[in-house]
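Quick one: structure tokens for this chain, please?
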Amino acid sequence: MRKIFTFITLIGLLIVSCGSSEKPESKTVSAEPTNKQQPARPANAVKAPNFTLATIQGDIVKMSDLSGKVVLVNFWGTWCGPCRAEIPDFVKLYDKHHDKGLEIVGITLTSGSPKKIQSFMDQWNMNYTVLTDIKGNETQDVTTVFGRATGGPIVGIPTTFLIDRNGYIVKRYLGPRSEKIFYNDLKPYL
């Protein structure tokens, strides 16, 4: 009985598709990056929390502004030696893969005034987005929210999250990593 039902269904599909006289729709090519097919999400993946922080220049940035991008969110500080060790690798990753949809967002914790942070960024040739507080302790709030979302507090920096194009945290790193390690993990999402 099952074989007969499958056969009838296939015949019906052939009749419908062969009898159609409509021309296929033309598709316009957009300059905007498209949502590429993403790998299967890990079982522990969670939606990245939205946040609102400021760039060093005072521009407001929300996590939702990065929708459709592959994002590395890095919690770090100017005073943190292991954080400094990662910066050249983030600069290389951004240079090589930004045009494929990679965004790197450094959320700086207790690093001083925007002027001090900008001076640090210039010294280290940081080419990716660095965010800080708007008025008070928003970066600490974001740290807490990301920790809660992933099932455990952020207990040290650098801590980095890999977020897929659909806005899900698919990997969490504690401690510095090399360009090669980050690239191997984010490559399937680009």
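The chain has a mean pLDDT of 84.
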